Amino acid sequence: MRIDGDGLYLVAGVALLVGAILPRLLRRYAISAPIAFVGAGLLLGLAVDRSHLSPIAEPGLTKHLAELTILIALMGVGLAIDRPIGWRRWKVTWRLLLIAMPACIAAVAGAGWLLGLAPATALLLGAVLAPTDPVLASDVQVQGPTTGDGAEPEEDDEVRFALTSEAGLNDGLAFPFVYAAVFAATKGAVGDWGLEWFAWNLVGKTVIGIAVGVAAGWLLGRMAFAAPSRTFRLADSREPVFALAVTLGVYGLAQVLHGYGFIAVFVAALTLRAAERGHDFHQELHGFVEELEHILTWGILLLLGVAITGGILKPLTVAGAAIGVGLVLVIRPLTAWLSLRGTPLGPSERWVTAAFGVRGVGSVFYLAYAAEDFGPELPSLWATVAFTVVFSVLVHGMAATPLMRMLESRRERARE
């Protein structure tokens, strides 16, 4: 049986109902909601027309849906972080971003090249698989803003903070490396584009994104919490849609100014969070964004399952599978573990932080973004990325609950 366009409304309704039930149903088991949704997508693929639900067939739709999902997630994680930004306070984060992430890109690109990929394709694969996911890693991230009179920033769970802040920034920081892969494929030797890439794509666009995020977040924070007119003081009127307006507006402004919009949105969320840090309006904003994120995430995972049923993994090679497994089980844990030497993390915390480099929607977005410049290699690239994302969802989804409980029990014993 095939479901027509009207029948898809029924499918969407059932999917949302299942999404409301699954988190509670699976709370006691080593099966995360993302695993269940991918499985539901596999079954759904047997009933719907899969020809128009493939990222290869619809790269534009795939890109924009993944883009919107990431934006909503970045606003959510930015609002959830209590800790003020700073070099020492965020020491673990900077290590993961400035050491582990480039090392991961280099290792995956090197492995891809050794396994037969063209240099530009290998670099693209490394860049696409670099970002850890702010969407699928909610089980190991901070749960929301701490607000109220006398509220103190959440400092005790360094693992959750590190994984949350890393995921908030490395989605945007992967962009320069994607550009490098595109330039390598379209402009030839590094000497022809290397200086331009460093000055503009690495430094210039990053600085613009940060500047837009800080300025817009500060202005909007002043308006929401301290505007002279109550009409503009949205914290008093309790308008949670303000979070969506900030997300889309800041992203659009950064893009118009040719900066990195992902970075701008996350920085704007941090800056907004810093305005009246104890105000409970932050919880309402975060709750609203979190609901939107859940809906979009369920859709992405269902479509991923449908694409797998439709054969997106058919071009998967042994080399592609080896890269995916190696990244999740070896490359990310090892590079992150080495980068975290000398940080406040204990041995167990260091290993858990290193291991949970969840791959997901960011990888889908970046491959869709670069698709038109890598036409012949796209089927195998999509197969490798889809396999890696599903493998990450399975491994990290099953490990998240027991490992986080282990860390919590060790902390409790240390306090006694």
TrEMBL record:
Subcellular location per the Swiss-Prot or TrEMBL entry: Cell membrane
A cellular-component GO term for this protein: plasma membrane
Keyword field: Antiport, Cell membrane, Ion transport, Membrane, Transmembrane, Transmembrane helix, Transport
Record flagged with keyword Chloroplast: no
Molecular function via GO: antiporter activity
Membrane topology listed for this record: Multi-pass membrane protein
InterPro entries: Cation/H_exchanger_TM, Na+/solute_symporter_sf
Highest taxon above the source species: Bacteria
Boundaries of every Cation/H+ exchanger transmembrane domain copy: 16-405
Example GO BP: proton transmembrane transport
Record-given protein name: Sodium/proton antiporter (CPA1 family)
TM annotation in the entry: 6-22, 29-48, 68-85, 97-130, 202-221, 241-274, 295-313, 319-339, 381-403
